Amino acid sequence: MKYNKIGIIGAGTMGIGIAADLLFHEMDCILVDSSPEALERAKTEIIRIIRFGPLANASLPKLNVDDVVSRITFTNKIEDVSIAEFIIENVPEKWEVKESVYRALTKVCKPEVNYAVNTSCISVTKVANVTDRPDKVIGIHFMNPSYLKSCVEAIRGYHTSEECIDNAKALLAQMKKEVVLVNDLPGFVTNRISHLFMNEAAFVVQDSVATPMQVDEIFKKCYGHKMGPLETADLIGLDTVVNSLDVLYDSYQDTKFRCCPMLRKMVDANLLGRKTGKGFYNY
What we know:
alpha/beta; Rossmann fold; N-(1-d-carboxylethyl)-l-norvaline Dehydrogenase, domain 2; 2 domains; oxidoreductase activity, acting on the CH-OH group of donors, NAD or NADP as acceptor; 3-OHacyl-CoA_DH
């Protein structure tokens, strides 16, 4: 099956990157967000990515911006995704938000449509159980920015069918992405490990062991990582990191996921990283 029109829920950092990725790979998008301001920012950012993305990734095609903009619908009406062939959801890591979105999607989407939960830590099985199609719900954990990443972590929920997995793989093949399929427990592989990594890096700064730059330099220069843990946290968004740690802590009842107090204080001060221009670094 070849997909042509994809519904994207949430016009934040991930939704923007995935929308641009789909447009680069000849699929049209319906981008939904309740905030008109978020949609306006998304349009500006998607145009920027379409213009400059091929400079960062030579495999991406050079597209005419006007043509691309005509292929994406920006809307605050979730019912507009009723014509979508696949849904990719990217709303914040808060259960009450995700639950509300999936209950709304159930009312408007065609029965055969599959849902991809783009979550950092929330259980795919729990999401599936609030829909009318738990067998058609799969986790797809896109990395940021999606259009520069060639692999995703996919998550099989308790009810996820083989047909749903095959459909998701077909969509991702159109996006030129490799898939690593794992099973469903909060955090899966990537975030169960990486959020411990980022959280402990924040503790190191809080305890005055090192500055953020020193922490990141050690990981880049000593280990050869492309980004340090605190640069990564800024890229993801510190609010998302904190929300994910809270989900992991609640899910496992394990103190190893206790959020660094300094990290939570930064979120309270709206120092969220790249999205607000200031986090561990200024942007």
